[in-house]
Amino acid sequence: MTEFGVATPSITVAGGRPATATGKSLSVVSVRKTYGDVVAVDEASMEIAAGEFVTFLGASGSGKTTTLMMIAGFCEPDSGTITVGDRDVTRLAPQKRGLGFVFQQYLLFPHMTVHENVAFPLTLRGVPKDEIRRRVGETLEIAGLSGFGGRKPRELSGGQQQRVALCRALVYRPPVILMDEPLGALDKKLRDQLQVEIKAIQQELGLTVIYVTHDQEEALVMSDRIAVMRDGLIEQFDTPRELFERPKTPFVADFLGAANFLPGRVLQNTGEHTVVRLDQSGSLLNARRHDLASGTPVTVAVQPGRIRACAADEGFCTGTVETATYVGTLVRAGVRVDGGDASLLRLEVPAGRGPVTGERVGITADPDDVNLFPTEQGG
Ligand SMILES: Nc1ncnc2c1ncn2[C@@H]1O[C@H](COP(=O)(O)OP(=O)(O)OP(=O)(O)O)[C@@H](O)[C@H]1O
């Protein structure tokens, strides 16, 4: 385990950002867990670099917590292996793995002070008193809690209590910190603030963090990479940008960006674009170049923030603005497309330039923002 103040090697995490790592790498290989007939996690595999912030994102019941609990050691996989650094921990008891945890419930000892709570893991490990005082002081300072050491948990706000829980996980510099919905009990403003703080601490210390959430925005803001989980499977494991701009399945496009979907068929590939004829309007749409043959039935996917209203005779289809809702900096509009089954397209446009209800508009998108999925994928 790396100790405070010890120089550590420089590494490059996914995304190319150099960091000084105190965290270790983690490898999950073909891990499976069933409960009777329910396959909670199905052959999950991932390689996580030292110093990387990885989030498990998915709807309720998709297998996020079960995967985290198998890494923690609280739940034994039916098969597969889990390695921390170069140590196989698959069958080790949780306390022998030495990992750090932060849960939604802060689980602080109410009768102990903040200092005693944070010191607890070091006390358990028999660290000398002076060393404990020094490390607890340093850790509280990192989390902006200097001066709070003498308080009891009940004398702190929810956000401060969660920071104490984070300090307790940080204080013995575990090779990996596991966080299960740690901000779930806090209001939005505090959650936003703590997201930034946790990310800053993680980067500064080069921690390896595995974070569970069902909040897409939280995952996009905090993560180097996100594993999108669905029915026990990892649907895609990628950077936030790749997931948002290059989703590999309609599920990921919808889960991360609430994408608009339109059915169509590939007409041809030009140098830069794949041209699609839309089923509904019969009009043509340019998508970025995909490796799909002419005639392939496809689902066209575009995020609401990546399509624009234009003059009614321009764009790849026309329609009537059915709703236009002002939401601060944005207007969310619903446009009922002409013809066929008259799909409703959702647009997000900067407030002040938004279309108004009843207006006839064309719809356009930059080809690079248009993703195509062969229809057999379930789109
Ligand atoms: N101890 C258990 N016994 C039986 N089934 C379980 C058990 N734990 C989890 N499951 C099932 O395994 C599946 C995955 O559950 P898991 O808790 O990992 O999902 P999750 O994505 O973390 O959901 P949530 O966001 O609601 O916590 C679900 O169908 C769940 O009902």
CATH architecture of the largest domain: 3-Layer(aba) Sandwich
- For the terminal residues, how far apart are their CA atoms? 47 Å
By CATH, the topology of the largest domain is Rossmann fold
How many β-strand runs?
22
Ligand species = adenosine-5'-triphosphate
Low-confidence stretches: 1-20
Domain tally = 2
Q: How much helix is in the residues?
A: 10-25%
Summarize it.
This protein has helices at 64-72, 94-97, 114-124, 129-142, 158-170, 188-205, 216-222, 240-245, 250-257, and strands at 10-12, 18-20, 26-35, 38-48, 53-58, 79-84, 87-88, 100-103, 177-180, 209-213, 225-230, 233-238, 260-269, 273-278, 284-288, 297-302, 307-310, 317-327, 330-337, 344-350, 360-365, 371-374. The chain is of the alpha+beta class.
Q: Could you characterize the architecture of this molecule?
A:
This protein is α+β, with helices and mostly antiparallel strands and about 375 residues long. The protein folds into 2 domains: about 170 residues, P-loop containing nucleotide triphosphate hydrolases (Rossmann fold), CATH 3.40.50.300; about 120 residues, Nucleic acid-binding proteins (OB fold (Dihydrolipoamide Acetyltransferase, E2P)). Helix content is about 25%, strand content about 35%. It is built from 9 helices and 22 strands. A 6-stranded mixed beta sheet has the order 8-9-10-5-11-12, sandwiched between helices. The longest helix is centred in the middle third of the chain and has 18 residues. The chain starts with 9 loop residues before the first strand and ends in a 5-residue tail after the last strand. The N terminus is likely disordered.
